[in-house]
Amino acid sequence: MTHPAADVHEPEEPETAATPRKSVTPDDRDAPDTLDASEASEVTEEKAEQTLLEQMGGVSGLIYSSVPVLVFVLANAFWGLQAGIWCAVGSAVAITVLRVVRKEPLQPAISGFFGVAVAAFIAYQTGSAKGFFLFGIWTSLVYGGAFLVSILVRWPLVGVVWSALNGHGQGWRGDKQARLGYDLATGAFVLIFAARFVVQKWLYDADQTGWLAFARLAMGYPLFALALIVTVWAVRRAGQRQRALEEAEQADDEAVEQALRAKYGDS
């Protein structure tokens, strides 16, 4: 008569023993969060660099953007304006097709093709090789003005764009130090666009087409790389400030909870 009782209790022991193996202790749950917090600044910095580089088309995009300009200048020097225009447009088309074949991001290629097409059209209408650079000159002025206005209205575009690209909120605007970092990063772009406009407009008025092409390349992505450094710094600064505010808020909540428990007990 003792055997049935033993049979009844034997299946329950594996279930009871298996339960602790499936349970997760508080230390196990907290360990990944602690690790993420300690590496958050490095991850944020790397993410900023990757996101901005992706918007430019990556390293290959930096190279591709220079090809139509070089092709235009060389073809114009050897065979004239018409050949320069068609060679520039043809190189932009070839780059777009190459990106499609290689399954690379198309947005930078399409933007680049549009810019080359507009520049070529202006050069054709003006009948002058320097007209190829006119669209980029005035675009720099428009972009610089937009970035400057965003600082004046306290919506620095670097912070707005970065938050939009990564699905973050606009809570950083409530913190003066975080907003200051984004103001400085946005200001770096203002200086770059202003320098591009002033220098290239002066070369345009002086009919220095060769030097204009050189300035277009030299003041392009090399200067953008400097602005990228400032942007990464601003993103990291804002991230650190946001984490500090969250930790302070959490500490305040814990202090209030402890005070309530001390006064009223656990109930």
Question: Can you characterise this structure?
Answer:
The chain has 267 residues and is mainly alpha-helical. The protein folds into 2 domains: 83 residues, no CATH class; 126 residues, no CATH class. The protein is 84% helix and 0% strand. It contains 13 helices and no strands. The two termini are 49 Å apart.
Question: What percentage of residues falls in helices of 4 or more residues?
Answer: over 70%
Tally the helices: 13
N-to-C series of helices and strands: HHHHHHHHHHHHH
What coarse outline follows from CA principal-axis ratios?
elongated
Integer count of domains: 2
Estimated structural class: mainly alpha
* Main beta-sheet annotation: none
Q: Gap between N and C termini, in Å? A: 49 Å
Weakly predicted, low-confidence segments: 1-38
C-alpha Rg (nearest Å)? 29 Å
Architecture blueprint of SSEs:
Blueprint: H1 2-9, H2 12-22, H3 26-38, H4 40-55, H5 58-64, H6 67-79, H7 81-101, H8 106-126, H9 134-152, H10 157-166, H11 176-205, H12 209-218, H13 221-264
Helix pairs in contact: 4-13, 6-7, 7-8, 9-11, 11-12, 11-13
